[in-house]
Give the backbone structure.
Amino acid sequence: MIGIIFGPPGSGKGTQAAKLQEELLLNHLSTGELLRAEVAKGTPMGNEVGRIMAAGDLVPDSLILDIVRSRLPEAESGTGVLFDGFPRTVAQAVALDEMLRAEGHGVGFVLALDVPEAELEDRLLRRARLEGRSDDTREAIAERMREYRKLTAAVLDHYRHESAPVHEVDGVGEPAEVFERIRKALGGISSD
Ligand code: AMP
């Protein structure tokens, strides 16, 4: 099973992805986490990535695809993969479709968490205070939301056109409540 969890910054996708990964026994592949690990290493590439992330911009497709390509075989070796924060652009989605097709796989579900923008801004500023995340300044938040609306909404359309099951789930509420909605939306999906 290959799944994609989708959501604007602050929509709680990291929390829901962790629950879903456990429920469906999927390997969780978060490009944001992989990038933050690269930044923490302090390599020249990590420093460049850190600047891009702090500005609220997307990291170039070629770099993201290199990272995913190198991690996919290991992630695919189990019962499946849950992509978190990837693909963010149509070019990434097309490249992922090709990678999966080469292995005889396809995207089993796309889950999009839906949270109104005002609520997202509140959540992100709260998180920035708690975690001291340098990419969560007001300007960076506004930029990431613009990026999200412009590019990633197109990725949902891509999957609708490809006839992959796309589920939009209301992401407002307690994490457990949101997860119940996700379970309902995914219906019969199980780890086997
Ligand atoms: P996330 O943890 O998914 O919110 O990602 C944090 C930041 O990492 C984003 O704002 C982007 O700068 C970068 N990033 C993560 N995933 C991608 C991706 N698939 N394509 C481009 N940039 C990404």
